[in-house]
């Protein structure tokens, strides 16, 4: 682990203890003498760590700016074969190419950072890739990806992750934490007489607190692909796409339905207040009017709470939208023709197979979400960690155990830290117990 990461981790742990003590007084309690001493000590330790962290970050930034690729023979690096590693001019031609090239070089070097930097130099890869491999610190968890490259990867998740694609707002986490104030009650405004005192009213506030949760995504990559020539936009695009797809699917799984227990983030399903969990009418015997009233009722729950409907949309499993697409009115016309344009009742929809269709007693129910995504925030730790193995095993989509060695694959593990939460919990409505389309 790099010195910067170590200091950030230590400060985050101290801050957690400090917040626990502060919470006692916030809830009406009082600190005893021992707790007051501990509180003061924690404040001092956090201030000291903050000063050390500032100096370490400045030193790391200076090292990155002054870095040059490692020279031949550094730390025992061996000259790579000429074939298959030449990178041409080293210009990135696709989004995420830098990360993809870094992954392929580290995989070729069996995770040896210095050897990978040597390969980058010999293959004439871009200067950013060479410097990144020359300056980052490898730790027990893998190799830290520079912020500029990890930011590019995170941005590339937007068209892949359905939750991100719908317009959620991404914010950086500060030391793994982020507190967002939110208005829980509006100021009361009214008219008064000429000699009447103005009543004292005010807004009430609350906080949405995000804290970094660690997500690990596994990406199996063919060794044949990793052996391809260095700066090849088609190869880099494939690797970048594989990384983005694996991370995006993992994000959607947790951002939508993780229950927030233990190390998990709290997904949209569990942020919704009980009043906004609305059971759907059963498919058997339902008519078009009942369907339309139900969908309108989901929308009304946001409108009735004065939610600004500026970035609202639907999330559902593909089964559900195909069932709605098949509905016809009494004249044989499509009930929702706008589905062809990506809209449902005037709002865009997103489809995800990460929303289950096997819920309920009979195992055929799903959920439909209507959310103001402008109110949903993703707190991001902008540093990714990657690690490699040619011998590890993993489970495929069918649950079968696959050997990387037997398949001639390299398993790439990407670790990211983030959290998700709404500024206003009223901005999320979930249609539950929906068996529409069962049997399709």
From TrEMBL:
Region of interest (Disordered), ranges: 70-93
Keyword Coiled coil: yes
Stretches of the chain forming a coiled coil according to its record: 4-59
Main location as per UniProt: virion
Organism the protein comes from: Ectopseudomonas alcaliphila
Pfam families registered for this protein in UniProt: Phage_capsid (PF05065)
Name of the molecule in the record: Phage major capsid protein
Biased composition annotated in UniProt, kind: Low complexity: 70-84
InterPro entries noted in UniProt: Phage_capsid, Phage_capsid-like_C
Subcellular location: Virion
């Amino acid at each position: 682990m790099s010195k910067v990461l170590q200091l950030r981790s230590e400060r985050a742990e101290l801050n957690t203890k400090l917040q626990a003590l502060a919470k006692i007084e916030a809830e009406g309690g009082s600190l005893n003498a021992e707790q007051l001493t501990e509180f003061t000590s924690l404040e001092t330790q956090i201030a000291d760590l903050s000063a050390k962290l500032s100096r370490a970050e400045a030193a790391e930034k200076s090292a990155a700016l002054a870095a040059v690729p490692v020279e031949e023979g550094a730390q025992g690096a061996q000259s790579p074969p000429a074939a298959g590693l030449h990178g041409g001019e080293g210009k990135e031609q696709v989004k995420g190419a830098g990360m993809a090239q870094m992954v392929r070089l580290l995989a070729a070097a069996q995770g040896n950072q210095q050897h990978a930097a040597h390969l980058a130099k010999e293959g004439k890869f871009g200067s950013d890739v060479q410097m990144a491999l020359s300056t980052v610190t490898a730790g027990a968890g893998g190799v830290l990806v520079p912020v500029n490259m990890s930011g590019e990867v995170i941005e590339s998740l937007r068209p892949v992750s359905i939750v991100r694609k719908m317009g959620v707002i991404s914010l950086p986490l500060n030391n793994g934490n982020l507190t967002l104030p939110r208005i829980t009650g509006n100021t009361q405004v009214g008219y008064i007489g000429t000699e009447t005192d103005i009543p004292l009213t005010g807004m009430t506030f609350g906080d949405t607190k995000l804290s970094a949760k660690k997500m690990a995504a596994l990406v199996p990559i063919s060794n044949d692909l990793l052996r391809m020539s260095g700066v090849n936009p088609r190869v880099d695009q494939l690797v970048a796409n594989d990384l983005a797809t694996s991370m995006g699917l993992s994000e959607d799984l947790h951002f939508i339905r993780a229950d927030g227990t233990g190390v998990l983030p709290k997904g949209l399903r569990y942020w919704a207040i009980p009043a906004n969990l609305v059971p759907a009418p059963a498919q058997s015997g339902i008519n078009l009017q009942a369907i339309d009233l139900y969908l309108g009722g989901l929308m009304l729950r946001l409108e009735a709470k004065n939610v600004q409907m500026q970035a609202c949309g639907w999330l559902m499993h593909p089964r559900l939208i195909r069932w709605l697409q098949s509905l016809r009115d009494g004249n044989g016309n499509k009930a929702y023709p706008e589905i062809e344009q990506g809209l449902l009742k005037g709002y865009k929809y997103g489809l995800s197979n990460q929303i289950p269709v096997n819920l309920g007693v009979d195992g055929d129910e799903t959920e439909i979400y209507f959310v103001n995504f402008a109110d949903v925030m993703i707190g991001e730790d902008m540093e990714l960690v990657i690690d490699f193995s040619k011998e590890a095993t993993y489970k495929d989509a069918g649950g079968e155990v696959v050997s990387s060695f037997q398949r001639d694959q390299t398993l790439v593990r990407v670790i990211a830290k983030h959290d998700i939460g709404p500024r206003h919990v009223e901005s999320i409505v979930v249609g539950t117990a929906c068996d529409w389309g069962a049997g399709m």
